[in-house]
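Thread title: Can someone regenerate the structure for this chain?

I was given the following input by a collaborator and told the matching structure tokens would be attached. They weren't. Posting the sequence so someone can regenerate them.
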Amino acid sequence: MAWTRPRLRREHFIDLRPLGTPAFARMWAGSTLSGLGGQLTIVAVMLQVYEITHDSFAVAMIAFAGLVPMMIAGLYGGMLADAFDRRVVALAAASVTFASTALLAGLTWAHLETVWWLYALSIVISAANSIVMATRAAIVPRLIPRDQLPAASALQGISYGLMVMAGPALAGLLVAFAGYAWTYSIDVVLMTSLFLGLWTLPSVRPEGDIVRPGLQSLADGWAFLRRASNIRLQYILDITAMTFGQPLALFPAVGAVLLGGGAITTGALTAAVAAGAFLSSLFSGPIGRVRHHGIGIERAIQVYGLAMLVFGLVLAAAALGWFAPPVVGPHSPNLVLIAAAVVVLAIAGAADNVSAIYRSTMMQAAVPDSVRGRLQGIFIVVVAGGPRVGALYAGALATLTTLWLPPLLGGIVIIALVGVLVRLSPRFRAYDAAHPEP
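Best answer:
Regenerated them for you:
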């Protein structure tokens, strides 16, 4: 019998059923386009601060300085989402992001930007975005059936992959050839799509008992989280991965002084993470059929840790001069090690996205609607706050030692600590998506 090449079957690819719901489809498309613009600004601000200061720690502090305001905004935004129409809350927060980005563009065109302006507006934008993300995530389970939630999470991975894969690379090119002002201005234009996606949503008022924003509402949310051991542990696991395995703040210095290539290398490294997320979402069909999400989270995060460890080894090889280009200059790219770093970071992005699909599905399926906004607020604080703590860890350790040590050491910590935490929680390992329990 002749041998035939096995073909990818339809169930191997992403489940597109959520896009059959017009409200979800519009919100997803608007969020993707606006997220692409947001990535332009994130990378441009990093590059501009590094250009002004030539200090990786100053780049890391952009993210860390916004941590407390972002945490407060995320928590308060979650309370707002459980008390008022979630569509209105998301629109109000998106308006703040739009105004702040427009001001950043205006200041840059007028040549009035300073490091402190870059810090201040980045803080406002991150705080407002945390409210938008928390509210939008609380809306999703009201738009589609529960069995489509893994597919919706995978579509979020596609969105993230598209905007981060194209955004940083485009930002590097725009900054190099057009300048910062044009980069920020394009973000302002793309952000208008977010309003279209949110404006056309139906009214989404919270179900169940409504508690007005305040200390009592916050206390109720935390009380639920104390009882929800599965949700609590997935937060801890994600914080572990992002604290010890988030090298984003190192990329400008890596591109400038270690791997070479400058801003283009910075964009390529960032885009590699998104490329991995995109591909893992594109072939996410089997992920949606896995029921034991706790085990899936554990294994995905440990693969992420291993990828960070190898990335540290690649940077160490660059520091030792391996595969150095024949013509050495301030921006001479080490193409062999850049390619190796891109592959390893793509694996890291894929693993992180698989973990995110399971974590997001667990959050949306197991948490009741009456507290979903507050739990999503805490979830966004964890998801967005962890990388900021990680940026501080990476920037500070790299400043005190060398660029390759933070990812290498962090990868070892992630693999070991995640294994211990999950094995101490049999209930998490036994989590069954067919019978979701928080």
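The chain has a mean pLDDT of 83.
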